[in-house]
């Protein structure tokens, strides 16, 4: 049976989804590291898929290595992936390792208006990862800690470096780590809501990308939206899934 | 010209030879990647390649020869400076280098850090002594089209001979009166500089030369409506960039030749991109040489640019000056009328620009509009939002991009542009 492989090379992790017979047959994840090509060699140690679509920041790199591969942007890939899982979704939010994307979805997982942060990684997974290290915590523990906060200070800076300064100042004033953590998560959601507003936020919203695994961000986003966002079981895989689906539909 | 002759000339201009060599090396590499690597280019592009290869060589030699013959060189940064008057005074007008990161640290000693890259660039080029055009100038003309430039000219004026023209910010009769007076003041500054009186005959002749250049550029712009696109957006942008510093008569002849070739190509149904390639109109801030970053990203993302709604593009070439008035006063009125039509974001309101963009998109059969805002350019940042609303109303897909001369955001920009192009395909 024909296999369609979707590969999403993000700034933090490489995701592979293989579809066969109209369903997902397998999926894998690897950290991107500073040697993504080396990681791809490991991923494809038992052979490179014949039908391969690549998306994410490393798509050009992968296409140089695997000339048979076809490339698409992660905006289109996530929209297709999320649209297949939640056909009713009208807006897509993807918070990944180094960027945030807000996309108005048209029927069939097509991309309408979209917004994306530019060069600065403010408000992305990187922001949370970096601020977590200030607390000496993993990102997962940082999210859990933030959930226990009850009186968050307003963190006004979205610059990772300035936010650290603000957090340090707040610590010195005796604000509890849980509340500072909550404040930092709120700052991310506030920025995200502004971006969603610019694409004309329409419910329901589907939330994908690695940061959709952060329980505090999900809760704060639900509060801001006034309803629970749609969450895939594996929110970091929608890009790879969308790439595989795109190959499947365009190859037919 | 030999390399040694080039270097001797640059030394006479007191350039920092080592830094200038480094700049030319980067420029050459950049040009090779972005321009020479293109497929299916027009034969007439040889002129562009030659001009660019001698941008700091033969053209500078021509300027030096003109100076030796007693002519004055006037440098500009803006389409509001009337070339008609400059030429009528027997002077040469050149647009100055402002499209690359150069001497940034030095520039930041004269202007605040959160100043746009265009301003930092022309100041950096001067302070780092790497622009032979700036060093050749007998007068540099600034204009008050934004607060950044207006205040920067105060600091810049301590390093170069400056004349600043006041450009009004509204288009009421009193504003026309102001700009008319500014034209006279510029005319007098030129007369003082050159020792020549600007006569009606000289102005009429100069107006013909400048209008001929505009008509050649209008002709090129109109030909780009053809499908498939007969010339790349990069080459068309370069034509517009070169229009600011090559000799106007030679330039006009060469561009008309290029247009002849394009017409032949259109008759044969040939183009630079396959039929059905998404066609984009690029709107917004000017792209001075060698600011080719965004056009290159767009055209390597599966799209072709069919028009530039920009000062280095339609804003500079849309209108000609009336050639019919027979006396100097009426000619100055005609100049005032022509320049006050410019739809620069410095004006309030500036609604004609929105209509012009929609009309260009329609005439050039563009599938979408990309707005380019230079980081820290407040007038165009505001208008990027207005243009977005106007394009929504007109049903034209729209992407707004804000960036600067750095390359750090190239990856993210490419993703945004590609995703936009994907929605059009």
TrEMBL record, chain A:
GO terms for molecular function: iron-sulfur cluster binding; metal ion binding. CDD domains: ASKHA_NBD_BcrAD_BadFG_HgdC_HadI. Residues 6-246 form the ATPase BadF/BadG/BcrA/BcrD type domain. Keywords: Iron, Iron-sulfur, Metal-binding. Its cofactor is [4Fe-4S] cluster. It comes from the Bacteria. This is 3-hydroxyacyl-ACP dehydratase. The lineage of its organism: Bacteria, Pseudomonadati, Thermodesulfobacteriota, Desulfovibrionia, Desulfovibrionales.
UniProtKB/TrEMBL annotation, chain B:
It comes from the Bacteria. InterPro entries: FldB/FldC_alpha/beta (IPR010327), YjiM-like (IPR047678). It holds the Pfam family HGD-D. Belongs to the FldB/FldC dehydratase alpha/beta subunit family. This is 2-hydroxyacyl-CoA dehydratase. It comes from Solidesulfovibrio aerotolerans.
